[in-house]
Amino acid sequence: MARTAKSAPQRATMLAASAEGLPTVVLVGRANVGKSTLFNRLAGRGRAIVSSIAGTTRDLNMVRTSHDGRDFMVVDSGGLELYANEPATERAMEEALRAVAMADLVVFVVDGRAGITGADHEALELVRETGRPLLLAVNKIDNPGNESAASDAYALGLPTLVFVSAAHGRGVGDLLDEIVAQLPAQNPAPAAQPDLRLALIGRPNVGKSSLLNRLFGYERAIVDSRPGTTRDPVLVRLKVGDRDVVLIDTAGIRRPARVEGELEQHSVGRAIEIIRRADVLALVVDATEGITDQDARLARLVETNDRALITVCNKWDAAAKLGRRVAAFARDARERYPFLAFAPLLFTSAVTGDGVDQILPAAVAAGNSWRAEFQTARLNRILAEAVAAMDPPLVAGRRLKLMYVTQIGKAPPRLAFFTNIERDIPAHYVRFLEGRFRAALGLEHVGTPLRLEFRRTGRSWADSRGKHNTSPAHAGGDAGRK
Ligand code: GDP
C-alpha cells in the first residue's frame, strides 16, 4: 500500500533542516486578509525559502528572521479557505491546519477593515483545536483611529491582539515584540522532576519482600526513611542518578481484615490501592512458574490505571537450574500475553542479587517515558512518514484523513489525531500507528502505556462546504484505545 506520487518523508526532512532548532511562527487566516504582505514585512531582510511542511503538497513560504536578538522561522500557511467546493481548496485547508499544528506560535490574521465574519470565527475555532499558542493580528489598520472600526475583533476572545498595517508597516514592530515575548524560552530551565514513586506488586511468595530488602541496600544514598503509621506505607527515598525515587514498601499498607470468601476481591482491591499510590509498578513474577494468568491480570490493572510497568522475573537462579533460558522465556511471555510487550522484562534473583541492580534504572526509564512530552513538530513528522508508508484505510467507504497530531496529555502520553472520521478506525491501522510512534519516540518496551485518540475536526467545512454552519464540532472520542 505504499504511496507513490508523494515523498512526504523527504519534504518533512526539508522542513526539519530549515527550521533546525528554531521556534516556528505560522501565519494563518482567510484569503485576502493580507497574510503574504505581513509575511514579507516580518521577513524583513531575511531571505525567504520556499519549503514544505510535512505531508503537504504545496510549497509554503518560510523565512528565517530575527527580532530583539531572537532567531525564529516565519511560515505563511497559505490560508484557511472555508466554504469552497473544490477538492483543491479542501486540501489547502488540511495543509494549512497541518502547518498550524507544528507551530510554536500561531499568528491569526484578520482583516480589520472588512470586519470580523462568521468565517473568521470558524477558522479560529479550527485553529484553536490544535491547542497551539495564539495571538491575533488585526490587519489593514492603515491610519490612526481605524482601530475603533475593528473593535469586533475583541469578540474573538484572544488575550493578545495587535493592530497592524502590513501594507504601510504600522504596528509591525509591536507585533514582532509580542511574537518574541511569546516564543518558547530559548533554553528552558529543566523543570524540577517530581519524585518517581515505585511500588512492587505480585502474587504472594514471588519474592517481593526479598527484593525490597535488596533494594533498600542497593543505593547507599538513602536520604530519609520514615516509618509509616498503620495506614501509611513506609516510604524509602533513593537517589538513582539524578532522579529521586520513592520506594513504597507495600508490606506497610494496612490489610483490612476480611472474611475468607472475599479473598480474590480483597487482593484485587489491595492491588489497585497500591497501583494508585505509585507512578511505576514493578510486577514481580516467579520465573520458576513462568508468567501466569493472575500475573497478567495484575499487569492489566496497572495498564488500565494509567501507570507505567516493568516486569521482574524473579527466582531466576532457581529457574536457570530448571533449564529455563532468557530468550525463550521472553518469547514465550510475549506470545502468550502480547499486550505485555509495552513493558520491559528483567531477570533477577533476590537470593544471589543478580539483576537486582537493573530494577531502579529500568523503573526510572519507564517513569521518564511515562511523563515524557513530545514536540508537536516531531509528532507531525512521524505522522507524515507513517501516512506515506501506509495509506490510511477506508472507513465505511470513506478515506480516513489524518490531518495532524498533538500530545494532549502525559503520564501516560496521550496523542490526539485530528481526522475527518473519529469512530470505527480499523484496529490494524491503530496498531500500525502505535507501532510507528513507539518506534520513533523511543517508547518500545520501556513500560509506558501510549494512548491514541481520534477526534474529528473541521466538521463545519468538511461536511457542509457551501453551507454556513456556525457551530464547529467539538467531538472527542477514543476509538483507538486497545
Ligand atoms: P513475597 O510474598 O512476594 O514478599 O515473597 P518473599 O520475599 O517472602 O519470598 C517468598 C519465598 O521465596 C521465600 O522463601 C524466599 O526466600 C524465596 N525467594 C525470594 N526470592 C527468591 C529468589 O530470587 N530465588 C530463590 N531461589 N528464592 C527466592
Q: What is the count of distinct domains? A: 3
Supply the number of helical segments.
14
* Mean residue pLDDT: 81
Outline: elongated
Bound molecules: guanosine-5'-diphosphate
Could you state the CATH homologous superfamily of the largest domain? P-loop containing nucleotide triphosphate hydrolases
Distance between the termini: 24 Å
The CATH architecture of the largest domain can be named as 3-Layer(aba) Sandwich
Short structural description:
With 482 residues, the protein is α/β, with parallel strands linked by helices. The chain contains 14 helices and 19 strands.
Written overview of the protein:
The strands form four sheets. A seven-stranded mixed beta sheet has the order 2-3-4-1-5-6-7, sandwiched between helices. A seven-stranded mixed beta sheet has the order 9-10-11-8-12-13-14, with helices on both faces. It has three domains: 8-182, Rossmann fold (3-Layer(aba) Sandwich), CATH 3.40.50; 196-370, P-loop containing nucleotide triphosphate hydrolases (Rossmann fold, 3-Layer(aba) Sandwich), CATH 3.40.50.300; 376-462, 2-Layer Sandwich (GMP Synthetase, Chain A, domain 3). The longest helix is centred in the N-terminal third of the chain and has 15 residues, at 87-101. Mean pLDDT is 81; it is low at 1-18, 219-232, 254-263 and 460-482. Helix 1 runs antiparallel to helix 12 and helix 12 packs across helix 13 (427-441). 33% of the residues lie in helices and 21% in strands. The chain contains 14 helices and 19 strands. It is of the alpha/beta class. It binds guanosine-5'-diphosphate. Residues 202, 204-210, 314-315, 317-318, 349-351 line the site of guanosine-5'-diphosphate.
